[in-house]
Design brief:
The protein is mostly helical. It has helices at about 1-25, 25-60, 65-85, 85-100, 125-130, 130-155, 165-180. The model has no long low-confidence stretch (mean pLDDT about 80).
Length: about 180
């Protein structure tokens, strides 16, 4: 019986100490949480911007416009799929990307090249790579952008990676007109 009383008193004292510590550091904890959220948002923003630049490089210099239009149709469908994912489906999907691409630079297949290069002079990787591999790299970039967009803004937000099917169709028709 005495042991039970001692345990109850110890638990009571421990609870009071924890409460006092939490009360004393409440403002600091709130501040750290706020800073942590800001840091995470900054990371998402910088990763999203980096991926947007890589996507632009693929679109402007690497992929054929016909292939690009088909890929962006797939991406548009994927964006809609991400919007409808349950939290567990979303967590599984984004964690699989984190396993496949542990560093954001893993999306950049030419990041070992010099910072300033002319594509026509140093695109040996892309000359030797088939369209399927180029397409897969492009799809992975934009799929991860879609996942980051949802991670940043939440499930209720409409995913926007910059995919504009109407614009691409217009560009393809201009491209086809020039070829004729």
């Amino acid at each position: 019986m005495e042991l039970e009383i001692v345990l109850i008193v110890c638990i009571f004292i421990f609870t009071i100490i924890i409460y006092l510590i939490k009360s004393f550091y409440k403002d600091e904890i709130t501040s750290l949480k706020r800073l942590s959220k800001l840091d995470q948002q900054n990371i998402y923003n910088s990763h999203f911007t980096y991926l947007r630049v890589l996507r632009r490089e693929y679109a402007n210099n690497i992929l054929d416009p016909k292939i690009l239009l088909n890929l962006d149709r797939k991406i548009y469908e994927y964006e809609k799929k991400v919007e409808k994912m349950t939290p567990s489906e979303f967590n599984f999907e984004i964690s699989s990307f984190w396993k496949k691409f542990p560093s954001i630079s893993d999306f950049d297949v030419i990041y070992d090249s010099p910072h300033f290069m002319k594509y026509k002079d140093d695109m040996s990787y892309f000359v030797s790579t088939d369209d399927f591999d180029k397409s897969e790299s492009y799809l992975n970039i934009v799929k991860y952008m879609a996942l980051l967009d949802r991670e940043r803004f939440g499930k209720e937000h409409s995913i926007d990676t910059g995919t504009n099917i109407e614009f691409l169709m217009d560009m393809q028709s201009k491209y086809n007109d020039k070829k004729l």
